[in-house]
Design a protein that fits this description.
This protein is an all-alpha fold. The chain folds into two domains: about 230 residues, no CATH class; about 90 residues, no CATH class. It is globular and about 75 Å long. It starts with about 30 loop residues before the first helix and ends with a helix.
């Protein structure tokens, strides 16, 4: 099924030429950011401590260290791939880190408690086999996709200016899934090391860390696609049906995979379910990346017309191909500092374009606050050139 986004029909706003401004004032508190960072770090340390106690008591301290090391290895690569999807208007790092921590701490903790309790309850009534089947096929898909989906819903309702479309939904979902998968893999790799030694943990790493590593990010991405579609559409019924449909699709995909793994038929599910869904999601992201480029081009046209952006810099804003070539040239000819400055210009331009797009669609009120934000972004762009 192909999702056809609404056409970009709103004309770009007319923006008068700007005088050269003074340096914009910072609105973000450094202390608040520092405190939040320290709090997040302490939360992660506490989580890892509890995880070490759990895995260590079950399989030993060395099993925990091996499991943690193997679980961490693919995370930087997958994080870079996820962030690569969202280059026109990069999302704040603290939101991506927050999504990762929610997936690794909140979602895993709640899921471990509820899945274990549900499995035990069914086992007492129907036997151990029924309890394991219920926990894997019924409880895990529902509980895990609900706890991860709840974080997506919070971001969707709370940060309207940072959750614009399908690409953003997939990005946040990927970070949630990566966090969940990393902590879950620590447990599985630790058990494999305890039972079969390092070769056993490496075999499981190839299966879970490389071949099927996309499972959790992909399942949660279905909910992200639904919420992203709801954000970018103007149709009322889609705003309701898309998130619910994405959520149920996430649970269904997760349940089918767990069922196939329980029955020993995971290669079939991998080839005929997981891979096609992954390919379809990547194609969907690529299509909407192209749409994002059109939005940037439309809503930054006034900046080229009034001279804030020269034609070359304007083309870099909406064409990733042109942008990539320009960034490589700047990096090797002008150095890292100039490269960082141009990257910041691209970020400010993307934020300005999508801010105007939100205002035009009524996602953000067209009031003095919105106008002040647009001016602030313009000032930053001017100072970066």
């Amino acid at each position: 099924m192909t999702i056809s986004p609404d056409p970009i029909e709103t004309p770009a706003p007319v923006v008068p030429p700007m005088p050269r401004p003074a340096a914009p004032q910072r609105t973000t508190s450094k202390w608040r950011g520092l405190i939040a960072g320290i709090g997040a770090a302490l939360l992660v340390i506490c989580c890892l401590g509890l995880l070490a106690i759990w895995v260590g008591s079950e399989s030993g301290g060395s099993a925990f260290l091996v499991g943690l090391a193997l679980a961490i290895v693919p995370v930087p690569l997958y994080t870079l791939l996820a962030v690569w999807m969202d280059r026109f208007e990069p999302e704040p790092a603290w939101m991506l880190i927050g999504a990762f921590i929610w997936g690794g701490v909140v979602a895993t903790a709640v899921s471990a408690i509820l899945n274990t309790a549900g499995g035990l309850a069914v086992a007492l009534m129907l036997g151990d086999v029924a309890g394991e089947m219920f926990s894997a096929v019924m409880s895990a898909p529902f509980v895990e996709e609900t706890t991860k989906g709840l974080a997506l819903l919070i971001l969707f309702l709370w940060k309207k200016d940072e959750f614009d479309n399908i690409v953003d939904g997939v990005l946040y979902a990927a970070m949630l899934g990566l966090g969940f998968a990393m902590i879950e893999n620590v447990i599985y790799y630790g058990r494999a090391y305890y039972e079969e030694g390092f070769s056993g943990s490496m075999t499981l790493f190839v299966l879970r860390g490389l071949i099927t590593s996309s499972l959790h990010p992909l399942c949660t991405s279905m909910t992200g696609v639904g919420l992203g579609w709801a954000r970018q559409t103007t149709r009322g019924w889609v705003k309701v049906v898309a998130p619910l449909g994405g959520y149920f699709l996430a649970m269904t995909l997760h349940g089918l995979w767990n069922l196939s793994a329980t029955l020993g038929a995971w290669p079939i599910a991998y080839i005929f379910v997981l891979l096609p869904t992954l390919l379809g999601t990547l194609i969907l992201v690529w299509v909407h990346q192209s749409r994002e480029g059109k939005i940037v081009r439309q809503y930054l046209t006034p900046e080229m017309e009034n001279g804030l952006l020269n034609p070359g810099a304007f083309e870099e804003m909406y064409s990733l191909k042109v942008r990539g070539k320009a960034l490589w040239k700047i990096l090797f000819s002008e150095g890292l500092k100039a490269w960082q400055k141009r990257m910041k210009l691209h970020q400010m331009g993307g934020e300005l374009a999508f801010h105007r797009w939100r205002v035009a669609r009524g996602v953000v009120k067209n009031d003095e606050t919105a106008a002040a934000k647009a001016i602030d972004l313009q000032q930053n762009m001017l100072l970066l050139q």
